[in-house]
Amino acid sequence: MSEWIPFLQSLIWPVFLAVFLFLARAQVAAILTSIKVRIERGDSLHVGPGGISVGRSDRKLTRLREEKKTADKAVTILGSTVAKSFELGGEREALGETVTDSPIQYKNIVYIVHSVTGPRVDVDGVERRGIRVILDGDSDDTLDKVERVVYHLHPTFPNADREVADRKNRFELRTRAWGEFNLSADVYFIGYREPLTLYRYLNF
Question: Whole-angstrom Cα distance, residue 117 to residue 131?
Answer without folding.
Answer: 7
